[in-house]
Each structure stands twice: as structure tokens, then as C-alpha cells.
Amino acid sequence: MTNTNINWKTFGMIALIIFSISFSSKTFNVKADPESDLSGYKIAIYNNLVSDTYLDSRIALQNMFLWMNANVENITASEIQNGKLSEFDLFVMPGRSDSTSYYELEELGVNNLLKYIREGGAYFGICGGASFAARSDVNIFSGAMQPVPGESILAHMVEMRINTESKAPNLSNMNETFSILFWGSTYFIPEDNNQINTIAVYSNCNESGMITYRFGLGSVFLSSPHGEFEENSDRDGTDAFDINNDPDSEWELMLKVSQWLVSASKDKIIFIWTASFGGGAIVAAFLTVFIIKKRKSTITKS
């Protein structure tokens, strides 16, 4: 009988392990599409505790996402540096100093954030959270942000128009205009306009103040004006800017955007899982066929 060095049990175990890992490694990330709210989704809102003096935006955002029935937690710079972002479906950067955020996160935290989004996470940036994304040393957004012509930098209400032709998310059933808090806000000039979906433009200049787009396998929403504050309601948990009169609410729009963010990233995760499962199955099948053929060859020779 011809001697063979092939250990059939070892080959079988390798095939089984590859198949099992590829089948199971991503399945825990797959969630149902959000239908009416964000039930079952985990939201991380940046809060660096000691140095965070921009409380009102974070408080309003926390109450807004609780209104969406999401599971909401605060996350610190050190937790981001230690990889905690992977536990969440959506990361929120509130209105705060973008330079402070960068100083706190340091290069490690920024790199972990970029990795999180590229690998299927979602980023929601408001005001300074949008400016942070546009920093050249962060580069979640590639392009520039410019002052809105004719608007004071002081806090006041402005009118915006919704892009009812938007598909990311679908906004065809939304009211065409709404009032929103403007506080030194800007508009976006992307390097590649074809990759950007406009959510809303300033009525006075037709420039984009809210945008969505894909980033690697993840998704991003940036808004320079503040859609988290409810100036005519206490449900945002803060009396900031209540001196302003806002006849409508932006929370329904924020919900639609947030649903798209987690769904868009989930779609990519399902794709990764499918590809991983398919790739593993192919490798396992190839090894199995190889083993069978080699065993038949050995038996024949013996």
C-alpha cells in the first residue's frame, strides 16, 4: 500500500472550523429593519464627563433618541480608545468644540472611530460633531464647510427645505419646509458631490446644511444646524434656546435619518455575513472534495 502523509481527520477539522467560523462570526450583528422607531438598537453619545461643558446638545440628543425607543448610553474618549464602540449601532457626536473632541480622543480614539464606521458603524454628527467629521486630521467628511450668507452667527431660527427626492432616507412624505435652530451654522461643499445625499438646504441660499452618505461599509449623517432642540417643548430635557419660537419639530426627520443610518450599515453587515458564509462554504466544500478524491486515490492505490 502506498504511504501517504495526509491526515484526513486534520483536513476534516480544518474544513469544519472554516465553515463554522464564517457562518457564525457576523450573525450576531444582524437586526431587523427599524420600522417605527429604534427599538433594540444601541446608541452611544459622546460625553467626556470631566471636560464636557457643552451639555445642552448632548442632553437634548439623549432625550431625542430615548423618544425613538433606542437604548442610549454615554461613551467617553477612553472607552472609544479601548474599543467600546464595537458594542453600538450608532455613534453620536453632539454640538461641541471639534478641536476639544480631537484633543480628547487623540489619534488612537480617532483611528478607532474611523475603523468603526468603515467596518459598518454609523456616525451622527450635529454642529461641532459635523465640524469634527470635516477636520482634515479626521476626514470622515472630505470637503469644506462655509458660512451661510446673510445669516448672523448668533442663535436664531432659520427655514430649511427638505429634499423630498432623497432616497437615503426616503423623505417623499415629509413637509417641504421646517424651522430649525441656527447657531453659527455652515453649509457643506463635498469634494465628490456624487457620493453625497442632501437631506435639507437653507431656503435663503439653497446650500446643503444636512447630508448623508456611505463611508466604507458604514453610514454618516451630518447636520450643521441643531435638529435636536425642541424650542417650544420641554421633552428635550433642557431650556436652552427656548426663547426662540419653533412652530414645528425636527425629531421625526431625525428619526427617519437615524433609521436609514442603522439600516444602511446593517445591509452591509448582512452582505459581509453572506460573503463570509459563502466564502467559507466554498473553501470547506473544496477541502471536502479534495479529501474525498485523495482518499479514493489512496484506496485505489492500496
Q: Mind explaining what this structure looks like?
A:
With 302 residues, this protein is α/β, with parallel strands linked by helices. It has a single domain (38-277), classed as Rossmann fold, CATH 3.40.50. It contains 6 helices and 11 strands. The protein has helices spanning 8-24, 55-67, 77-81, 98-118, 128-134, 251-301; strands spanning 42-46, 71-75, 90-93, 122-126, 143-147, 156-162, 177-182, 186-190, 197-202, 208-215, 218-223. The strands form 2 sheets. Strands 2-1-3-4-11-10-9-6-7 form a 9-stranded mixed β-sheet, sandwiched between helices. The chain has a two-stranded antiparallel ribbon with strand order 5-8. Strand 10 and strand 11 (218-223) form a beta hairpin. Helix 4 (98-118) packs across helix 5. The protein is globular and about 40 Å long. The model is unreliable at 1-6, 14-30 and 268-302 (pLDDT under 50).
